Description:
Elements: H1 4-19, H2 37-43, E1 45-49, E2 52-55, H3 56-74, H4 81-108, H5 114-122, H6 128-133, H7 144-156, H8 161-188, H9 194-205, E3 206-216, H10 229-238, E4 244-245, E5 248-257, H11 262-281, H12 285-292, E6 301-302, H13 309-317, E7 323-329, E8 332-345, E9 347-356, H14 360-378, H15 384-391, H16 395-398, E10 403-408, H17 414-422, E11 428-433, E12 436-445, E13 448-460, H18 465-481, H19 485-495, E14 499-505, H20 518-524, E15 542-544, E16 547-557, E17 560-561, H21 564-588, H22 594-601, E18 606-611, E19 617-618, E20 622-623, H23 625-631, E21 643-644, E22 648-659, H24 665-691, E23 695-696
Antiparallel strand pairs: 1-2, 1-23, 3-18, 3-22, 4-17, 5-14, 5-16, 6-13, 7-8, 8-13, 9-10, 9-12, 11-12, 15-16, 19-20, 21-22
Amino acid sequence: xxxLQKIRNRAGIAIAIFIGVALAAFILGDLFKSTSSLTRGxxxxxAEVDGKVITYPEFQSKVSELEEIYKMNSGKTxxxxxxxxxxxxxxxxxxxxNLTMKDIYEELGxxxxxxxxxxxxQGKNPHAIIQSxxxxxxxxxxxxxxxxxxxxxxxxxxxxKERSYWLFIENQIIEERSFAxxxxxxxxxxxxxxxxxxxDLKGRNHQANIQFVAKPFSSVPDTDxxxxxxxxxxxxxxxxxxxxxxxxxxxxxxxxxxxxxKADEDKLIKWSNDIKSEFSTVxxxxxxxxxxxDVPFDASFFKQGELSxxxxxxxxxxxxxxxxxxxKDGKSWKLAKIQKFEExxxxxxxxxxxxxxxSQEELAKATATIDSIKxxxxxxxxxxxxxxxxxxxxxxxxxxxxSLGWMRRGMMVKPFEDAAFLGKVNDLQVVKTQFGLHLLQxxxxxxxxxxxxxxxxxxxxxxxxxxxxATYTTASKFASENQDAKKFNAxxxxxxxxxxxxxxRENDKDIAGLENSRTLIRAAYKAKTGSxxxxxxxxxxxxxxxxxxxxxxxxxxxxxxxxxxxxxPRIEIEVKKEKKAQQLIEKMSGKSDLAxxxxxxxxxxxxAQNINFESSSIPGVGFEPAIAGAATALEAYQVSxxxxxxxxxxxxxxxxxxxxxxxxxxxxxxxxxxxVNYRANMVAFEALRENAKIVDKRSKFY
Length: 702
């Protein structure tokens, strides 16, 4: 039966194409406790897209649905914070696209009929999602039998996970198909003319070897150009659209890391020495390690070269029960006790039969199955390879009689590796791993060498509660004495602290270098400029990972056009660049001898080979498409007028020109059309999205 577990590994890629990945753990808190019934509905609004309101419960429901799908695909029961954020973002993007496009689809008559959906699932050319999920790993083609079997199963279990999963897949297929139809309509309205193709071919066929003289804007001192307020304001009015901004907050902060003190480390060394005598006498070192170590007992065996020189020398010169340490290893203090010696191979040749186990309920049945399989081989004398082909769930090795070939350490999961390297040749062992139950047989062992197993007590050097409290007190004192921006900055200088700056958007999840800093970002949007940022508990101290942070909000930008005063420094740079360009053009105009021009400017003549219209990076210059544009317009030995580029002004000479022979108009037309269609699809949706006037209030809840 094509159950969910059997298709999980294949589902991941297909679903990722259209929906991304996911999970979330959300706490709404008591946000709405004080709201009346009349205002509660407004308070629950998470967003508005094209006049349609998305409420928090509605959004959370979609997130939860995607969480469950992800869990089913991955086999996980819980999801980490990063996956949670990815799911929330993917849910948001899906809902925005669907709400943005809903009326467009209706207006254009775009839809997916039931017969069309049936054809995309069971027809001659199934949808990419279906083909990926139900692909036969042996043939690489669609396994229609598995598909039909799964469809029948989910229909007979209308309230089960399989049914929910299938409905989700159907919905993804419909959404993707609808969007593809819209994009196809756009493509039909786009046409590349023959003249455009000819012009493109001419530019690509025109290859020039060039010489050029470059004079950067930075060569003109800022003091040599003046920009009046009138000129700056005129530039601003002309280029306002370039100065759109989103909601942003500027914050400055100082961190107080909670780090272990010398006293903390001395205390740990004393503890290690005190426990050493007890460790030497315990009957079960592994259990003792699990109780007293920050890292569980590791049953691995090591060759001498796999240990540090000091530990390796001790272990292979000592006897069972000897203890090394305490010794410092990175950020830990350790005690290592010799547990066992074994002569182990460097590699093994093995084969296995796998019975997959997807749940605890299936374990008893799988145990009985693996025992009956073992009985077929041991009692009834059937060949291992024949039984493997007939019964193993590992189809990759089953086709080879269960053979896994030769394997070295680190190539297998640990329980399987331990059994393979410690087991005897030809013995049949039942091994439990995350994949299920294995009937394992070692066929050959490679060259053996002495190995040692160590019981290691590993205690990480950590700050004590006293150190934690002392650091908090320091941060608290700083905050209480410096509650405005002026005092905040003065204290940082006086105390030699390291001030950091961040610009955060309303829905940013993290600030680089600060763990779990979403709480600080949300708080920044409630702070007043020039004041300390306070948490929801009213304290200016944020505990972020292993540090305390005190921050102040220094400025805010509101969504829309930046004011002239906000962008004046940026505008001054651009206006001065224009003035510098004009000065350089005047100096470089009317010169046809590049060597003479370069000498007069105090620079050298540069060279570049095989430049055409698609060349954007020029050797020795970098990204400068202006040079390529000038070169493609030149005949051999022709010199250009001064060309204003990204970082300077250039004069270009074509030393030779060669004309390519690419005359395939049809192929180039297809290439141009594909490029234009791609841009059109992207630009069209962004235009629709902007026109939808999205109001994003997610930061109220997350």
